[in-house]
Amino acid sequence: MNKIVREAPNSFDLPYRVKRLAEIAHNLWWVGNPETARLFKDINQLAWSQSNHNPVVFLRLVEKQTFEDLIKDRYFLERYDRIMREFDAYMNRADTWFHETYPGLKEEIAYFSFEYGLHESLMVYAGGLGVLSGDHLKEASDLGLPLVAVGFLYTYGYFSQRISEDGWQEARNVELNFNDLPLIALYDENHEPIKIAIELPGRNVFARLYELNIGRNKLILMHTNLPENTPQDRQLTDRLYISDPELRISQEMLLGIGGLRALQRLGHKPAIYHMNEGHSAFLTLERIRQLIGEGQTLEEAKKIVQKTSIFTTHTPVPAGNDEFPAWLVDKYFANFWGDLGLDRDQFMDLAKVKTDWSDEVFSMPVLALRLSNYRNGVSKLHGEVSREMWQYLWPETPAAEVPISYITNGVHTGTWLARRLGLLYNRYLGPDWKDNLDNPETWAKIDSIPDDDLWRVRLHLKRKLIIYMVSRARYQWEHNNVHPVQTVASGVLLDPTLLTIGFARRFATYKRANLLFRDYDRLLRIVTNAQKPVQIIFAGKAHPADEPGKLLIQEVYRKVKDARNGGRLVFLDDYDMDMARHLVQGVDIWLNTPRRPREASGTSGMKAAMNGTLNFSVLDGWWAEGFNGRNGWAIGDDTHYDDLDQQDDADANSLYDTLENEIVPLYYTKRSADGLPGDWIERIKECIRTTSPQFSMTRMVKEYMNDLYAPALLASGAEEKP
Ligand SMILES: *Cc1c(COP(=O)(O)O)cnc(C)c1O
Fold it and tell me: Do both 316 and 417 map to the same domain?
């Protein structure tokens, strides 16, 4: 009974000697192990880039003869065997951090998120939240945590962006081709696809289940585009962050309620549940309903759910939170509250918010905060902001004591560190550096790397970024009929020897992409300086419904096309994880200009820092913790002006001053006889030494385990049996 048949729909015509490449293609482990990507690339570089670095597509594209030749190549086989040995050792490792630290804990941790950023070819993410979830899963596997995750398999990926000649963002939906993805299809004993159902008003909605292998763990994905569903229900998993409120509440019911049923259908019995943002908070209600069905009282069930729920909030402004009007909750939960023994008003009271910014609404974060005993923000500053923002839920408690803690975000080193830097670290940081990523002692050895070796890698990465920009520009000219001025605007004239700044992020107004233009003439003098010019690369999408965000892109794009900047400003369209990797590894400076304290954490700056790209940022989110005066630069200080104009003026002036007086001179002058900018390299080393351990995903997931998961597991009744 309950037999599950797992089938990878893709098979490849591979020679026996290298047949396990198919296995690698179906485990996202390879993404965090750049030597594997390098092996694929060396098999056939053109096919690798045509496949968008997707091994499933790639293995289909490469001709059989290529493999027949390769299995006669001793060097290739050595590399193949080494990667397979590493993969096997990884999958079977018994002495992971988790096993060593919590030898008795066996119970599973469930993780819920709306989106997962695992790789550019798997477009089930929109941005930072998804990349954080994806990195969390990879690291949980690296550390040996028994974690199982749930999310959606969308019909369309997050939109692909093109910029018109006049700078207007055009969004195109790209349908995912499931045959191109490393999905594992799940069947029951009769070879029927495994599905779950949830009840929506007057009908059942079915979702088919798939799995992705993330190292040792699994991510379960739900998909509703099935013939048995109504046309509207088939759209539930069409795309990320649907704005239509009825679709949205249905989607969130599917995530929370359906997600729990999916876990159960596949035989998982997690002891604790982590909700990454409030989108999945209906999970708590379904758990209470099931516990009551097993004979608990409402109060007992609530207590059990609270003891075993972890909620991470990411939103520092009330308006950004996910909430539903009361009439919608009436419509969708009228058959639900009876099961909890509640009437309508008692049910609404679970998550009711009525404040000066909204009418009576049902708030997902409020539901999650009330029904989780473990709650956290995503940086120190964001923890403070969250405690103040939600203080009204604990009216007797002063803000400083509101029970919301913080765990600062991190990034997955294997995914974001340049392969070449990894090779340098292999030589200088000791053989076990990858097992000690969060240990400052590992990184103290960074000083032993010779300056010219480090600088050579940095220059190589900048050249690689420029080659990437040129090939994209060429492709667009050939395929998309762009105007030649757009080709110039996409970076083909950049010079790898010049100081290069990157600014890539979602175009939301609080991120102030136009802060650089506050005194445009002053900026022009900086970028066109004859001896010490500066190049600036912009990239990023605006949410398709965010008109001010799209206007911001247009403002930036028009400046980029302005002849007066001498080609020093660039805008790259269609920001994704691939572009993020090239940018954070390739530029010299990573710029971030949010309006403090709106940046809950930010993670792209951490990716940059671990690659020796120096941050130049407002002291907001993670950088308020990361900056030490010597490992990058700050924009402004913590002064807060109530007047936004005044704030923008102060921040812009600080930005220009620091660029002119510190950053540009440090990059261009004080070169040694062999042409090395010694003081700049000193800063790079300080940056890598201080930020790599502190903002590693290793540190982050260990903190989730030690501070939230372990106490919740013990409270759940899971026992440590040494
Ligand atoms: C890392 C990343 C983000 C998040 O970066 P922020 O610093 O939070 O803006 C967004 N999009 C992509 C593609 C990323 O790789």
Answer: no
Mutate which of 118, 584, 604 for ligand 1? The one with the most ligand atoms within 8 Å of its CB, which is 604
- Average pLDDT over every residue of 508-526: 96
- Residue whose CA is at the smallest distance from ligand 1 atom 1: 604
DSSP one-letter string for 143-193: HT--EEEEEE--SBPSPEEEE-TTS-EEEE--B--GGGS--EEEE-TTSPB
pLDDT in tens, 535-584: 999 999 999 989 999 999 999 999 999 999 999 999 999 999 999 999 99
Residue 302 alpha carbon to ligand 1 centre in Å = 36
Instruction: Say if residue 204 is in the same domain as residue 306.
Output: yes
Q: Which ligand 1 atom is nearest residue 411's CA?
A: 1
Residue 583 lies in a domain: yes
**Ligand 1 pocket test: which of 603, 606, 700 has the largest number of ligand atoms within 8 Å of its C-beta?**
603
Find the farthest-apart pair of alpha carbons in the chain and give their distance in angstroms, rounded: 80
168: CA distance to ligand 1 center in Å? 22
Question: Relative to the CA of 505, which ligand 1 atom is closest?
Answer: 9
Transcribe 623-636 into DSSP letters.
Answer: HHHH--SSSEEEES
Q: Are residues 36 and 119 in the same domain?
A: no
Asked if residue 474 is part of any domain, the answer here is yes
Domain of residue 367: give its range.
97-409+703-715
Same-domain status, 24 and 124 = no
Q: Which of 37, 69, 92 is the last residue of a domain?
A: 92
pLDDT of residue 249: 97
Q: Which residue has the higher pLDDT, 637 or 133?
A: 133
Residue from 31, 416, 505, 572 whose mutation best tests the ligand 1 pocket (most atoms within 8 A of CB): 505
Ligand 1 contacts (CB < 6 A) are 127-128, 131, 505, 575-577, 580, 602-605, 607
Angle between helices 326-333 and 245-253 (to 10 degrees): 50
The alpha carbon of 506 and the centre of ligand 1 are apart by a number of angstroms equal to 8
200, 233: one domain: yes
Among residues 569, 613, 586, 577, the alpha carbon closest in space to that of 465 is found at 586
What CATH code is carried by the domain that includes residue 291? 3.40.50.2000
Instruction: Give the atom of ligand 1 at the shortest distance from the alpha carbon of 575.
Output: 13
CA distance 235 to 253: 14
- C-alpha of residue 515 to centroid of ligand 1, in Å: 19
Exposed e or buried b per residue across 502-524, where buried means at least 16 C-beta atoms within 10 angstroms of its C-beta? bbbbbbbebbbbbbbbbeeebbb
Q: Tell me the per-residue pLDDT of 74-96, one tens digit each, with 9 for 90 and over.
A: 999 999 999 999 999 999 999 99
Its pTM stands at 0.97
List, for residues 241-271, the tens digit of each pLDDT value: 888 999 999 999 999 999 999 999 999 999 9
Same domain as 158, residue 139: yes
Count of structural domains within the chain: 3
Domain end call among 92, 114, 135:
92
Residues 430 and 390 in one domain: no
pLDDT digits (tens, 9 = 90+) for 682-720: 999 999 999 999 999 999 999 999 999 999 999 998 765
Both 307 and 171 in one domain: the answer is: yes
Ligand 1 atom closest to the CA of 606, numbered from 1: 7
Q: Pairing relation of β-strands 109-112 and 147-152? A: parallel
